Amino acid sequence: MPDLNQLITESVNPDTVRIDECSTEEMLYMINREDCKVAPAVREQIPQIAKAVDLIYQAMRKGGRLFYVGAGTSGRLGFLDAFECPPTYGVDPQLVQACVAGGDLYRESEGCEDNAQEGAALISERGVTERDVVVGISASGSAAYVVSALRAARKVGVGTVGLTNNQNNGFEQECDVCIAPVCGPEVISGSTRMKAGTSQKLVLNMLTTAVMVRLGKVYGNRMVDVQVTNQKLVHRSIRMIAEITGVSEPDAETWLNRTNGNVKQAIFCILSGKDPKTAQRCLEKNHGVLKDALKHL
Question: What is the pTM of this model?
Answer without folding.
Answer: 0.91
